[in-house]
Specification:
With about 90 residues, the protein is an all-alpha fold. Helix content is about 55%, strand content about 0%. It contains 2 helices and no strands.
Length: about 90
Amino acid sequence: MSNAFVCIMGISTVFVGLICIILLCSLMSFICKLIPEKKAESVPAPKAASGNESISGELAAAVCTAIAEDLGKDVKNIRIVSFKKA
């Protein structure tokens, strides 16, 4: 086989592959436009925390994890005494 034939086959293979990718993307875009979008249900706004309410365990765990990650320590070594609303 000649070098020119190999080059032409390689280039044509690449371009055929690219054309197939473009066609698949266009087809998927067309299909996605046909499917109706689901509207997000309205979620009630969270209650404003007053000074008397205690914070949930999930929120405390998230805060402790974030602080431990920032300090580079294990969560077990961090003890949060109190939370103050800023």
